[in-house]
Write the structure tokens for this entry.
Amino acid sequence: AQKITQTQPGMFVQEKEAVTLDCTYDTSDPSYGLFWYKQPSSGEMIFLIYQGSYDQQNATEGRYSLNFQKARKSANLVISASQLGDSAMYFCAMREGEYGNKLVFGAGTILRVKS
Amino acid sequence: GAVVSQHPSWVICKSGTSVKIECRSLDFQATTMFWYRQFPKQSLMLMATSNEGSKATYEQGVEKDKFLINHASLTLSTLTVTSAHPEDSSFYICSADRLQGPSNQPQHFGDGTRLSIL
């Protein structure tokens, strides 16, 4: 069974608008972490934001925020005020249990920002 | 911030040769390093988990004798693609976890290696 599901293969957004990238997950471990990474065409993986399963508040980092709905097992990434440089592949990932355990990645969403 | 260096960034070689890729954590000690393979426009596929001083744990379907992993120190892991063939051409990327840290620490990724086998 898929542990991380990203249902949007590709998304377009107009520059300066907000966009939501969807991510749902599946785990029976009460302790887990959810991560979002950005991968531009050059290939490097850029860490964006983290949400822990016990965190009471939604995570925010600058223009990135995470809409964490634990009961629905969703962790959608919201990018506000999109910029052309946001065009990239975005991956949602989950780590179950403690650090040192492997990350499981979703299929990714390609985001294109239009001017 | 934490830096992971991966070398080389780009390799072209003839079929049948072996290629070694290095992954170094530059400013922290990494007990665990991970090796991924990625095809164009696809997700990262975990190949193996590398722990310092012990044998790597390979994911199902990954050939141990084909992809040799060595984690000789807390700052260095290597992946050797032995007797490489065109189907081994791919983007290989490593990541590292700190020796000590909370569970919210992200894995730190190298910049990846593009391997092309002719």
Notes: The first strand of chain B starts at residue 4 and ends at 7. The interface with chain A takes residues 31-32, 34, 41-44, 46, 49, 91, 93, 95, 97-98, 101-109, 111-112, 114 of chain B (CB under 8 Å). The two ends of chain B are 37 Å apart (CA to CA).
